[in-house]
Design a protein that fits this description.
The protein is built from seven helices and seven strands; from the N terminus they run βαβαβαβαβαβαβα. Strands 1-2-3-4-5-6-7 form a seven-stranded parallel beta sheet, with no helix packed on it. The chain has 193 residues and is of the alpha/beta class. The model has no long low-confidence stretch (mean pLDDT 91). The radius of gyration is 17 Å and the shape is globular. The chain starts with 6 loop residues before the first strand and ends with a helix. Helices cover 45% and strands 11% of the residues.
Amino acid sequence: MNTALTSLDLSGNNFDDQSITCLGTMLRENKVLTSLRLSSCGLGPKALQTVCRAVGMNTTLTSLDLSFSKFDDQSITCLGTVLKYNKVLTSLVLVGCGLGPEGLCEVCNAFGMNTTLTSLHLSGNEFDDQSIACLGTMLRENKVLTTLGLNRCGLGPEGLCEVCNAVRMNTTRTYIDLSENRFDDKSITCLGK
């Protein structure tokens, strides 16, 4: 087994079931890989479950990018379980994964319990009132998250006010990307408080 490779970018590849099984085995057994990018690989729910279970057993992976994957309820629950108990992962990128309100709440609830993740990117996923409330709770409870990507999430004035109110109560955040959302004068006022 390779003992020098610490970063692996497999973005843009299409994996069959056998490849995903091999990837899962590699993640469970590898003791040096710290960064894995699987962006735009067309990973579906079954493949995501395999990857999430393997990440749950991995003790070295600190950065995972699953952008533009296709999560369903089971795969997002699997990811949520991993996030609750994983003590190594520090960065998670879930850009454009089509996470619905329940999926976003699952991720936010897991982040509320996680003590190692410092960076979360949820850009390109649509938030509604329910998921915004979950996000606000997570931002108030999580004491380690420093970077949050929320651009192009369909956040409106109420969403921005919820984020601002939560951030005021917890000062560990150092960077939040809120670009390309729908704000008005009221929400800008919340930002200024």
